[in-house]
Amino acid sequence: MNFKMVTAAALALCLGASAVFAAGEPQVVRQDLMKKIGGSLGALGAIAKGQKPYDAEAVKTALSTISASAKDFPNHFPAGSETGFETEAAPAIWQNMADFKAKAAKLSTDADTVLAAMPADSAGVGQALQTLGAECGACHQPYRLKR
Predict the structure, then answer these.
(1) What pTM value is reported for the model?
(2) Residue 35: its pLDDT value, please?
(3) 17 part of a folded domain
């Protein structure tokens, strides 16, 4: 075999292995969960602003994703995961874990409440976003590092 091909294959294998390793790290898992929440809020925002038509199924999916992600989110902050993988988690999380978990639970509960009432139009989605956005801000202020 050609030396360049062997070297390239070995490099690709190592990069793939490191990506798999990183994917299971708590910092990466929680970043992925935040991206899911952010993407769902973005989808709701597009509907609320009239950039996309009201779609009940899209609203249901977004709210369900927010709820499930917020429920799972606090499970990925074990001791020792305060740094690394470009985390934006503030040390205050580990200093006040009970409050942090309560804020995540509130976001999940609010998403469930909005889902149960199911906004019927883009104006209703906008009202839901105000509630959910306030919960996001209440957690980001004390628990997210400013970059």
Answers:
(1) 0.83
(2) 97
(3) no
